[in-house]
Amino acid sequence: MSTTPSDIKATLSFSDGTPAIDLPVYKGSIGPDVVDIRALYGKTGKFTYDPGFMSTASCNSSITYIDGDKGELLYRGYPIEQLAVQCDFLETCYLLLNGELPNAGQKTEFVNLVTRHTMVHEQMQQFFRGFRRDAHPMAVLVGSVGALSAFYHDSLDINDAHHREVSAIRLIAKLPTLVAMAYKYSIGQPFVYPRNDLSYTANFMRMMFAVPAEDYKSNDVMVRALDRIFILHADHEQNASTSTVRLSGSSGANPFACIAAGIACLWGPAHGGANEAALNMLFDIQRQGGAERIGEFITRVKDKNSDVKLMGFGHRVYKNYDPRAKLMRETCHEVLSELGLHDDPLFKLAMALEKIALEDDYFVKRKLYPNVDFYSGIVQRALGIPVSLFTGIFALARTVGWIAQWNEMISDPEQKIGRPRQLFVGSARRDVPPLAARK
Ligand code: SDX
Protein backbone atom coordinates (compact mmCIF):
# COMPACT_ATOMS: atom_id res chain seq x y z
CA MET A 1 0.00 0.00 0.00
CA SER A 2 1.50 3.35 -0.99
CA THR A 3 0.07 5.32 1.94
CA THR A 4 2.07 7.14 4.58
CA PRO A 5 1.43 5.80 8.13
CA SER A 6 0.82 8.89 10.25
CA ASP A 7 1.16 9.34 13.99
CA ILE A 8 -2.48 10.43 13.96
CA LYS A 9 -4.93 7.94 15.36
CA ALA A 10 -8.72 7.96 15.64
CA THR A 11 -10.21 6.85 18.94
CA LEU A 12 -13.69 5.41 18.73
CA SER A 13 -15.56 5.15 22.01
CA PHE A 14 -19.03 3.71 22.59
CA SER A 15 -21.72 4.53 25.14
CA ASP A 16 -22.86 0.89 25.36
CA GLY A 17 -19.83 -0.35 27.28
CA THR A 18 -18.00 -1.60 24.17
CA PRO A 19 -14.29 -0.91 24.80
CA ALA A 20 -12.91 2.12 22.96
CA ILE A 21 -10.66 1.38 20.03
CA ASP A 22 -7.77 3.32 18.44
CA LEU A 23 -7.72 3.20 14.63
CA PRO A 24 -4.71 4.20 12.50
CA VAL A 25 -5.02 7.18 10.15
CA TYR A 26 -3.17 7.14 6.82
CA LYS A 27 -2.19 10.10 4.68
CA GLY A 28 -2.16 9.95 0.87
CA SER A 29 0.09 12.14 -1.30
CA ILE A 30 -2.80 14.64 -1.70
CA GLY A 31 -6.43 14.62 -0.62
CA PRO A 32 -8.27 13.50 2.53
CA ASP A 33 -6.67 11.23 5.13
CA VAL A 34 -8.31 7.83 5.72
CA VAL A 35 -9.18 6.01 8.94
CA ASP A 36 -8.25 2.33 8.65
CA ILE A 37 -11.30 0.49 10.05
CA ARG A 38 -10.24 -3.02 9.03
CA ALA A 39 -9.84 -4.08 12.67
CA LEU A 40 -13.17 -2.58 13.77
CA TYR A 41 -15.42 -5.63 13.44
CA GLY A 42 -12.89 -8.02 14.91
CA LYS A 43 -12.34 -5.80 17.97
CA THR A 44 -15.86 -4.42 18.53
CA GLY A 45 -18.31 -6.70 16.67
CA LYS A 46 -19.62 -3.59 14.94
CA PHE A 47 -19.63 -2.57 11.23
CA THR A 48 -19.49 0.91 9.78
CA TYR A 49 -22.57 1.97 7.83
CA ASP A 50 -22.14 4.01 4.62
CA PRO A 51 -24.76 3.37 1.87
CA GLY A 52 -23.49 4.87 -1.41
CA PHE A 53 -19.98 5.00 0.10
CA MET A 54 -20.27 8.75 0.77
CA SER A 55 -17.37 8.64 3.26
CA THR A 56 -15.61 5.42 2.28
CA ALA A 57 -12.29 4.91 0.47
CA SER A 58 -12.53 1.46 -1.11
CA CYS A 59 -8.86 1.24 -2.11
CA ASN A 60 -5.64 3.15 -2.47
CA SER A 61 -4.87 4.33 -5.99
CA SER A 62 -2.31 6.47 -7.83
CA ILE A 63 -4.18 6.85 -11.11
CA THR A 64 -6.70 9.71 -10.91
CA TYR A 65 -7.35 12.41 -8.34
CA ILE A 66 -10.36 14.75 -8.10
CA ASP A 67 -10.56 17.81 -5.87
CA GLY A 68 -14.33 18.35 -5.88
CA ASP A 69 -14.19 21.71 -4.09
CA LYS A 70 -11.62 23.15 -6.49
CA GLY A 71 -13.07 21.44 -9.56
CA GLU A 72 -9.71 19.83 -10.28
CA LEU A 73 -9.08 16.55 -12.16
CA LEU A 74 -5.60 15.02 -12.43
CA TYR A 75 -4.62 11.90 -14.42
CA ARG A 76 -1.38 10.63 -12.83
CA GLY A 77 -0.86 14.20 -11.56
CA TYR A 78 -1.39 15.99 -14.88
CA PRO A 79 -4.34 18.47 -15.03
CA ILE A 80 -7.07 17.46 -17.47
CA GLU A 81 -6.96 20.98 -19.00
CA GLN A 82 -3.35 20.39 -20.13
CA LEU A 83 -3.82 16.80 -21.28
CA ALA A 84 -6.93 17.71 -23.33
CA VAL A 85 -4.97 20.36 -25.24
CA GLN A 86 -1.39 19.02 -25.40
CA CYS A 87 -1.96 15.24 -25.75
CA ASP A 88 -4.05 12.83 -27.76
CA PHE A 89 -6.15 9.96 -26.45
CA LEU A 90 -3.57 7.20 -26.96
CA GLU A 91 -0.93 9.22 -25.12
CA THR A 92 -3.46 9.56 -22.31
CA CYS A 93 -4.10 5.81 -22.41
CA TYR A 94 -0.37 5.15 -22.10
CA LEU A 95 -0.22 7.58 -19.16
CA LEU A 96 -3.14 5.98 -17.30
CA LEU A 97 -1.80 2.46 -17.86
CA ASN A 98 1.89 3.11 -17.15
CA GLY A 99 1.97 6.16 -14.86
CA GLU A 100 4.08 8.36 -17.15
CA LEU A 101 3.53 10.08 -20.49
CA PRO A 102 5.25 8.26 -23.38
CA ASN A 103 8.31 9.68 -25.11
CA ALA A 104 8.28 9.71 -28.91
CA GLY A 105 9.59 6.17 -29.26
CA GLN A 106 7.26 4.76 -26.62
CA LYS A 107 4.31 6.54 -28.23
CA THR A 108 5.09 5.11 -31.68
CA GLU A 109 5.39 1.60 -30.27
CA PHE A 110 2.15 1.90 -28.25
CA VAL A 111 0.18 3.34 -31.18
CA ASN A 112 1.42 0.52 -33.45
CA LEU A 113 0.48 -2.07 -30.82
CA VAL A 114 -3.06 -0.74 -30.39
CA THR A 115 -3.52 -0.24 -34.13
CA ARG A 116 -2.71 -3.90 -34.80
CA HIS A 117 -5.34 -5.16 -32.39
CA THR A 118 -8.34 -3.23 -33.72
CA MET A 119 -9.88 -6.13 -35.67
CA VAL A 120 -12.26 -8.51 -33.91
CA HIS A 121 -12.70 -12.23 -34.65
CA GLU A 122 -14.87 -12.58 -37.77
CA GLN A 123 -17.31 -14.75 -35.81
CA MET A 124 -18.08 -11.82 -33.53
CA GLN A 125 -20.41 -10.67 -36.31
CA GLN A 126 -22.75 -13.55 -35.45
CA PHE A 127 -23.42 -12.03 -32.03
CA PHE A 128 -24.59 -8.77 -33.60
CA ARG A 129 -26.95 -10.57 -35.98
CA GLY A 130 -28.73 -12.08 -32.99
CA PHE A 131 -29.87 -8.66 -31.74
CA ARG A 132 -32.91 -6.71 -32.96
CA ARG A 133 -31.82 -3.78 -35.13
CA ASP A 134 -33.32 -1.40 -32.56
CA ALA A 135 -31.50 -2.97 -29.59
CA HIS A 136 -29.91 -0.31 -27.38
CA PRO A 137 -26.17 -0.14 -28.21
CA MET A 138 -25.29 -0.58 -24.55
CA ALA A 139 -27.11 -3.94 -24.51
CA VAL A 140 -25.09 -4.93 -27.59
CA LEU A 141 -21.83 -3.79 -25.99
CA VAL A 142 -22.45 -5.61 -22.70
CA GLY A 143 -23.02 -8.78 -24.74
CA SER A 144 -20.23 -8.38 -27.28
CA VAL A 145 -17.51 -7.26 -24.85
CA GLY A 146 -18.36 -10.12 -22.49
CA ALA A 147 -18.23 -12.47 -25.48
CA LEU A 148 -14.65 -11.40 -26.28
CA SER A 149 -13.49 -13.62 -23.40
CA ALA A 150 -14.66 -16.60 -25.45
CA PHE A 151 -12.08 -15.77 -28.12
CA TYR A 152 -8.98 -14.94 -26.10
CA HIS A 153 -8.12 -17.96 -23.96
CA ASP A 154 -4.46 -16.99 -24.39
CA SER A 155 -4.75 -13.94 -22.16
CA LEU A 156 -7.11 -14.79 -19.34
CA ASP A 157 -4.61 -15.61 -16.57
CA ILE A 158 -5.09 -12.46 -14.50
CA ASN A 159 -2.07 -13.29 -12.35
CA ASP A 160 0.21 -13.11 -15.41
CA ALA A 161 1.26 -9.45 -15.94
CA HIS A 162 1.81 -10.11 -19.66
CA HIS A 163 -1.71 -11.53 -20.02
CA ARG A 164 -3.07 -8.44 -18.27
CA GLU A 165 -1.13 -6.19 -20.65
CA VAL A 166 -2.33 -8.08 -23.76
CA SER A 167 -5.96 -7.93 -22.54
CA ALA A 168 -5.63 -4.19 -21.88
CA ILE A 169 -4.37 -3.53 -25.40
CA ARG A 170 -7.07 -5.76 -26.93
CA LEU A 171 -9.87 -4.00 -25.03
CA ILE A 172 -8.64 -0.46 -25.80
CA ALA A 173 -8.15 -1.40 -29.45
CA LYS A 174 -11.39 -3.30 -30.02
CA LEU A 175 -13.97 -1.14 -28.25
CA PRO A 176 -14.08 1.40 -31.13
CA THR A 177 -14.59 -1.45 -33.61
CA LEU A 178 -17.42 -2.93 -31.52
CA VAL A 179 -19.11 0.46 -30.94
CA ALA A 180 -18.98 1.21 -34.68
CA MET A 181 -20.32 -2.29 -35.46
CA ALA A 182 -23.22 -1.73 -33.05
CA TYR A 183 -24.03 1.51 -34.89
CA LYS A 184 -23.70 0.03 -38.39
CA TYR A 185 -25.89 -2.92 -37.41
CA SER A 186 -28.58 -0.59 -36.02
CA ILE A 187 -28.86 1.29 -39.34
CA GLY A 188 -28.59 -1.77 -41.59
CA GLN A 189 -25.27 -0.79 -43.15
CA PRO A 190 -22.35 -3.20 -43.62
CA PHE A 191 -19.63 -3.34 -41.00
CA VAL A 192 -16.53 -1.28 -41.90
CA TYR A 193 -13.19 -2.88 -41.09
CA PRO A 194 -10.52 -0.86 -39.24
CA ARG A 195 -7.60 0.56 -41.22
CA ASN A 196 -3.98 0.58 -39.96
CA ASP A 197 -3.09 3.77 -41.81
CA LEU A 198 -5.46 5.93 -39.71
CA SER A 199 -5.18 7.35 -36.20
CA TYR A 200 -7.22 5.71 -33.43
CA THR A 201 -10.03 8.27 -33.56
CA ALA A 202 -9.99 8.83 -37.34
CA ASN A 203 -10.24 5.04 -37.67
CA PHE A 204 -13.28 5.03 -35.39
CA MET A 205 -15.02 7.81 -37.31
CA ARG A 206 -14.38 6.00 -40.57
CA MET A 207 -15.80 2.72 -39.17
CA MET A 208 -18.83 4.72 -38.05
CA PHE A 209 -19.56 6.81 -41.12
CA ALA A 210 -17.87 5.28 -44.21
CA VAL A 211 -19.98 3.33 -46.71
CA PRO A 212 -18.74 0.99 -49.47
CA ALA A 213 -20.38 3.15 -52.12
CA GLU A 214 -17.93 6.03 -51.80
CA ASP A 215 -14.64 7.17 -50.33
CA TYR A 216 -14.71 8.62 -46.80
CA LYS A 217 -12.58 11.55 -45.67
CA SER A 218 -12.81 12.53 -42.01
CA ASN A 219 -12.82 16.16 -40.88
CA ASP A 220 -9.67 16.86 -38.82
CA VAL A 221 -11.45 19.34 -36.51
CA MET A 222 -14.13 16.77 -35.74
CA VAL A 223 -11.57 13.99 -35.24
CA ARG A 224 -9.65 16.20 -32.80
CA ALA A 225 -12.87 17.11 -30.99
CA LEU A 226 -13.86 13.46 -30.57
CA ASP A 227 -10.33 12.54 -29.49
CA ARG A 228 -10.62 15.23 -26.80
CA ILE A 229 -14.00 13.83 -25.72
CA PHE A 230 -12.30 10.46 -25.26
CA ILE A 231 -9.60 12.09 -23.08
CA LEU A 232 -12.21 13.82 -20.90
CA HIS A 233 -14.01 10.51 -20.25
CA ALA A 234 -10.98 8.28 -19.78
CA ASP A 235 -10.98 7.87 -15.98
CA HIS A 236 -12.54 9.34 -12.85
CA GLU A 237 -11.44 7.74 -9.54
CA GLN A 238 -13.75 5.14 -7.94
CA ASN A 239 -17.04 6.05 -9.68
CA ALA A 240 -19.85 3.50 -9.81
CA SER A 241 -18.71 1.68 -12.97
CA THR A 242 -15.04 1.63 -11.95
CA SER A 243 -16.04 0.25 -8.56
CA THR A 244 -18.09 -2.39 -10.42
CA VAL A 245 -15.04 -3.36 -12.48
CA ARG A 246 -12.87 -3.55 -9.35
CA LEU A 247 -15.44 -5.63 -7.44
CA SER A 248 -15.89 -8.00 -10.40
CA GLY A 249 -12.11 -8.29 -10.79
CA SER A 250 -11.64 -9.00 -7.07
CA SER A 251 -13.32 -12.40 -7.59
CA GLY A 252 -10.76 -13.28 -10.27
CA ALA A 253 -13.15 -12.81 -13.20
CA ASN A 254 -11.42 -12.27 -16.54
CA PRO A 255 -10.88 -8.66 -17.75
CA PHE A 256 -13.41 -8.90 -20.60
CA ALA A 257 -16.15 -9.97 -18.16
CA CYS A 258 -15.14 -7.18 -15.75
CA ILE A 259 -15.30 -4.51 -18.46
CA ALA A 260 -18.70 -5.87 -19.58
CA ALA A 261 -19.88 -5.42 -15.97
CA GLY A 262 -18.55 -1.84 -16.01
CA ILE A 263 -20.44 -1.13 -19.23
CA ALA A 264 -23.64 -2.44 -17.67
CA CYS A 265 -23.22 -0.12 -14.66
CA LEU A 266 -22.29 2.90 -16.80
CA TRP A 267 -25.59 2.51 -18.71
CA GLY A 268 -27.61 3.90 -15.80
CA PRO A 269 -29.05 7.44 -16.26
CA ALA A 270 -27.53 8.57 -12.95
CA HIS A 271 -24.09 7.70 -14.34
CA GLY A 272 -22.93 7.40 -17.94
CA GLY A 273 -26.49 7.32 -19.29
CA ALA A 274 -26.85 10.98 -18.24
CA ASN A 275 -25.45 12.31 -21.54
CA GLU A 276 -28.25 10.62 -23.48
CA ALA A 277 -30.79 11.73 -20.83
CA ALA A 278 -29.46 15.33 -20.88
CA LEU A 279 -29.90 15.67 -24.64
CA ASN A 280 -33.38 14.13 -24.50
CA MET A 281 -34.19 16.64 -21.72
CA LEU A 282 -33.12 19.50 -24.02
CA PHE A 283 -35.19 18.03 -26.87
CA ASP A 284 -38.23 17.91 -24.55
CA ILE A 285 -37.82 21.55 -23.47
CA GLN A 286 -37.36 22.55 -27.12
CA ARG A 287 -40.51 20.66 -28.15
CA GLN A 288 -42.47 22.37 -25.39
CA GLY A 289 -41.46 25.84 -26.58
CA GLY A 290 -37.73 26.29 -25.94
CA ALA A 291 -36.08 28.94 -23.78
CA GLU A 292 -39.31 30.52 -22.59
CA ARG A 293 -40.26 27.20 -20.98
CA ILE A 294 -37.01 26.89 -18.99
CA GLY A 295 -38.50 28.57 -15.90
CA GLU A 296 -41.38 26.09 -15.85
CA PHE A 297 -38.96 23.18 -16.24
CA ILE A 298 -36.74 24.41 -13.39
CA THR A 299 -39.84 24.68 -11.20
CA ARG A 300 -40.61 21.00 -11.91
CA VAL A 301 -37.00 20.05 -11.08
CA LYS A 302 -37.29 21.79 -7.70
CA ASP A 303 -40.58 20.05 -6.96
CA LYS A 304 -39.61 16.93 -4.98
CA ASN A 305 -42.80 15.17 -6.10
CA SER A 306 -41.94 15.51 -9.76
CA ASP A 307 -38.92 13.18 -9.68
CA VAL A 308 -37.51 15.37 -12.48
CA LYS A 309 -33.77 16.04 -12.38
CA LEU A 310 -31.67 18.48 -14.36
CA MET A 311 -29.71 15.83 -16.24
CA GLY A 312 -26.06 16.67 -16.74
CA PHE A 313 -26.04 18.61 -13.46
CA GLY A 314 -24.75 17.63 -10.04
CA HIS A 315 -22.00 15.28 -8.98
CA ARG A 316 -21.08 13.17 -5.95
CA VAL A 317 -17.59 14.65 -5.82
CA TYR A 318 -17.59 17.96 -7.74
CA LYS A 319 -19.11 20.73 -5.62
CA ASN A 320 -17.74 23.19 -8.15
CA TYR A 321 -17.75 23.32 -11.93
CA ASP A 322 -16.69 19.96 -13.45
CA PRO A 323 -13.50 20.90 -15.36
CA ARG A 324 -14.54 18.47 -18.08
CA ALA A 325 -17.80 20.39 -18.62
CA LYS A 326 -15.83 23.60 -19.30
CA LEU A 327 -13.63 21.80 -21.85
CA MET A 328 -16.68 20.14 -23.38
CA ARG A 329 -18.40 23.51 -23.80
CA GLU A 330 -15.29 24.86 -25.56
CA THR A 331 -15.28 21.81 -27.82
CA CYS A 332 -18.94 22.49 -28.56
CA HIS A 333 -18.04 25.98 -29.77
CA GLU A 334 -15.20 24.63 -31.96
CA VAL A 335 -17.28 21.92 -33.62
CA LEU A 336 -20.41 24.05 -34.12
CA SER A 337 -18.27 26.85 -35.60
CA GLU A 338 -16.52 24.38 -37.91
CA LEU A 339 -19.93 23.18 -39.06
CA GLY A 340 -21.35 26.68 -39.38
CA LEU A 341 -23.90 25.87 -36.65
CA HIS A 342 -23.14 28.94 -34.49
CA ASP A 343 -26.83 29.29 -33.80
CA ASP A 344 -27.49 25.67 -32.97
CA PRO A 345 -30.75 26.08 -30.99
CA LEU A 346 -29.96 23.19 -28.67
CA PHE A 347 -26.57 24.65 -27.70
CA LYS A 348 -28.14 28.03 -27.09
CA LEU A 349 -30.89 26.38 -25.03
CA ALA A 350 -28.26 24.48 -22.97
CA MET A 351 -26.31 27.65 -22.25
CA ALA A 352 -29.52 29.49 -21.27
CA LEU A 353 -30.51 26.59 -18.99
CA GLU A 354 -27.03 26.54 -17.42
CA LYS A 355 -27.13 30.30 -16.78
CA ILE A 356 -30.56 30.16 -15.13
CA ALA A 357 -29.66 27.12 -13.01
CA LEU A 358 -26.38 28.62 -11.81
CA GLU A 359 -28.26 31.71 -10.60
CA ASP A 360 -31.03 29.73 -8.88
CA ASP A 361 -30.69 29.25 -5.12
CA TYR A 362 -31.83 25.60 -5.31
CA PHE A 363 -28.76 24.69 -7.37
CA VAL A 364 -26.40 27.16 -5.69
CA LYS A 365 -27.29 25.89 -2.18
CA ARG A 366 -26.78 22.28 -3.25
CA LYS A 367 -23.60 23.10 -5.21
CA LEU A 368 -25.06 21.62 -8.37
CA TYR A 369 -22.98 22.49 -11.44
CA PRO A 370 -22.85 21.12 -14.99
CA ASN A 371 -20.95 17.84 -15.18
CA VAL A 372 -19.24 16.11 -18.08
CA ASP A 373 -22.57 14.94 -19.46
CA PHE A 374 -24.27 18.31 -19.85
CA TYR A 375 -22.60 19.44 -23.07
CA SER A 376 -21.21 16.15 -24.38
CA GLY A 377 -24.49 15.20 -26.04
CA ILE A 378 -24.65 18.43 -28.02
CA VAL A 379 -21.15 18.06 -29.43
CA GLN A 380 -21.60 14.34 -30.15
CA ARG A 381 -24.87 15.06 -31.99
CA ALA A 382 -23.05 17.71 -34.05
CA LEU A 383 -20.42 15.04 -34.88
CA GLY A 384 -23.22 12.88 -36.28
CA ILE A 385 -23.32 10.39 -33.40
CA PRO A 386 -26.88 9.19 -32.61
CA VAL A 387 -28.19 9.90 -29.09
CA SER A 388 -28.51 6.21 -28.26
CA LEU A 389 -24.77 5.75 -28.88
CA PHE A 390 -23.58 8.54 -26.52
CA THR A 391 -23.09 6.20 -23.56
CA GLY A 392 -21.37 3.69 -25.83
CA ILE A 393 -18.86 6.42 -26.68
CA PHE A 394 -18.42 7.03 -22.94
CA ALA A 395 -17.76 3.29 -22.46
CA LEU A 396 -15.25 3.29 -25.33
CA ALA A 397 -13.29 6.10 -23.67
CA ARG A 398 -13.64 4.80 -20.09
CA THR A 399 -12.34 1.33 -20.98
CA VAL A 400 -8.75 2.50 -20.46
CA GLY A 401 -9.59 3.86 -17.01
CA TRP A 402 -11.44 0.71 -16.02
CA ILE A 403 -8.61 -1.55 -17.16
CA ALA A 404 -5.94 0.63 -15.53
CA GLN A 405 -7.84 0.53 -12.22
CA TRP A 406 -8.45 -3.22 -12.59
CA ASN A 407 -4.74 -3.80 -13.25
CA GLU A 408 -3.77 -1.65 -10.24
CA MET A 409 -6.08 -3.69 -8.02
CA ILE A 410 -4.87 -7.10 -9.28
CA SER A 411 -1.25 -5.97 -8.81
CA ASP A 412 -1.91 -4.81 -5.21
CA PRO A 413 -0.57 -7.45 -2.79
CA GLU A 414 -3.19 -6.32 -0.27
CA GLN A 415 -6.01 -7.09 -2.71
CA LYS A 416 -8.82 -9.31 -1.37
CA ILE A 417 -12.23 -10.26 -2.76
CA GLY A 418 -14.66 -7.42 -2.10
CA ARG A 419 -17.43 -8.54 0.24
CA PRO A 420 -19.31 -5.75 2.09
CA ARG A 421 -21.52 -6.57 5.13
CA GLN A 422 -24.92 -5.06 6.07
CA LEU A 423 -27.16 -3.70 8.78
CA PHE A 424 -29.82 -6.46 8.92
CA VAL A 425 -33.31 -5.11 9.58
CA GLY A 426 -35.33 -8.17 8.55
CA SER A 427 -37.02 -10.94 10.56
CA ALA A 428 -35.07 -12.73 13.34
CA ARG A 429 -35.08 -16.59 13.31
CA ARG A 430 -38.57 -18.14 13.16
CA ASP A 431 -39.99 -21.62 12.32
CA VAL A 432 -41.77 -22.53 9.08
CA PRO A 433 -45.55 -23.00 9.75
CA PRO A 434 -47.30 -25.84 7.86
CA LEU A 435 -49.20 -24.70 4.76
CA ALA A 436 -52.60 -25.30 6.41
CA ALA A 437 -51.64 -23.09 9.34
CA ARG A 438 -50.57 -20.12 7.22
CA LYS A 439 -52.97 -17.14 7.22
C1 SDX B 1 -21.21 10.79 -14.15
O1 SDX B 1 -18.92 9.46 -10.01
C2 SDX B 1 -18.38 9.92 -11.11
O2 SDX B 1 -17.29 10.28 -11.13
C3 SDX B 1 -19.31 9.85 -12.32
C4 SDX B 1 -18.80 10.50 -13.59
C5 SDX B 1 -17.59 9.77 -14.15
O3 SDX B 1 -16.84 10.39 -14.91
O4 SDX B 1 -17.50 8.52 -13.90
O5 SDX B 1 -18.45 11.85 -13.32
C6 SDX B 1 -19.86 10.47 -14.68
O6 SDX B 1 -21.93 9.88 -13.80
C7 SDX B 1 -21.61 12.23 -13.98
C8 SDX B 1 -23.01 12.39 -13.31
C9 SDX B 1 -24.05 12.16 -14.38
N1 SDX B 1 -25.40 12.11 -13.82
C10 SDX B 1 -26.31 13.07 -14.00
O7 SDX B 1 -26.06 14.14 -14.58
C11 SDX B 1 -27.70 12.74 -13.47
C12 SDX B 1 -28.23 13.93 -12.65
N2 SDX B 1 -27.39 14.07 -11.46
C13 SDX B 1 -27.94 13.45 -10.23
O8 SDX B 1 -28.57 12.23 -10.43
C14 SDX B 1 -26.93 13.51 -9.08
O9 SDX B 1 -26.39 14.77 -9.09
C15 SDX B 1 -25.80 12.50 -9.02
C16 SDX B 1 -26.28 11.11 -9.11
C17 SDX B 1 -24.83 12.75 -10.12
C18 SDX B 1 -25.08 12.71 -7.68
O10 SDX B 1 -25.99 12.37 -6.71
P1 SDX B 1 -25.59 12.38 -5.13
O11 SDX B 1 -24.17 12.74 -4.94
O12 SDX B 1 -26.08 11.12 -4.53
O13 SDX B 1 -26.37 13.62 -4.60
P2 SDX B 1 -27.87 13.57 -4.13
O14 SDX B 1 -28.69 12.78 -5.11
O15 SDX B 1 -27.90 13.18 -2.71
O16 SDX B 1 -28.28 15.12 -4.33
C19 SDX B 1 -28.12 16.04 -3.28
C20 SDX B 1 -29.30 17.00 -3.46
C21 SDX B 1 -30.65 16.29 -3.44
O17 SDX B 1 -31.61 17.25 -3.01
P3 SDX B 1 -31.99 17.32 -1.43
O18 SDX B 1 -32.36 15.90 -1.01
O19 SDX B 1 -30.77 17.85 -0.72
O20 SDX B 1 -33.18 18.26 -1.37
O21 SDX B 1 -29.22 17.63 -4.76
C22 SDX B 1 -30.37 17.23 -5.52
C23 SDX B 1 -30.93 16.00 -4.89
O22 SDX B 1 -32.33 15.90 -5.16
N3 SDX B 1 -29.87 16.97 -6.89
C24 SDX B 1 -30.48 17.36 -8.00
C25 SDX B 1 -29.65 16.93 -9.04
N4 SDX B 1 -28.59 16.30 -8.54
C26 SDX B 1 -28.72 16.31 -7.20
N5 SDX B 1 -31.64 18.02 -8.19
C27 SDX B 1 -31.97 18.25 -9.49
N6 SDX B 1 -31.22 17.88 -10.56
C28 SDX B 1 -30.06 17.22 -10.36
N7 SDX B 1 -29.31 16.85 -11.42
Word description of this protein:
- There is one protein chain.
- The protein is mainly alpha-helical and 439 residues long.
- 49% of the residues lie in helices and 6% in strands.
- The protein has helices at 40-44, 80-86, 89-98, 104-115, 124-129, 137-148, 161-186, 200-209, 220-232, 240-249, 255-266, 274-287, 294-302, 323-338, 345-358, 361-365, 372-382, 390-411; strands at residues 4-12, 21-27, 34-35, 64-67, 72-75, 78-79.
- It is globular, with a radius of gyration of 24 Å.
- The model has no long low-confidence stretch (mean pLDDT 94).
- S-citryldethia Coenzyme A (SDX) binds at residues 236, 239, 270-272, 274, 301, 309-317, 366, 368, 371-373.
Give the radius of gyration: 24 Å
Share of β-strand residues: 5-15%
Tally of contiguous helical segments: 18
Tell me the distance between the termini: 56 Å
Low-confidence stretches: none
Summarize the structure.
By secondary structure, this protein is mainly α.
Keywords:
439 residues, mainly alpha, three-stranded antiparallel sheet, 6 strands, binds s-citryldethia Coenzyme A
What is the topology?
Layout lengths: L3 E9 L8 E7 L6 E2 L4 H5 L19 E4 L4 E4 L2 E2 H7 L2 H10 L5 H12 L8 H6 L7 H12 L12 H26 L13 H10 L10 H13 L7 H10 L5 H12 L7 H14 L6 H9 L20 H16 L6 H14 L2 H5 L6 H11 L7 H22 L28
Antiparallel strand pairs: 1-2, 2-3, 4-5, 5-6
Helix pairs in contact: 2-9, 3-18, 6-7, 6-11, 7-8, 7-18, 8-9, 9-14, 9-17, 9-18, 10-11, 10-18, 11-18, 12-17, 14-17
The structure holds s-citryldethia Coenzyme A.
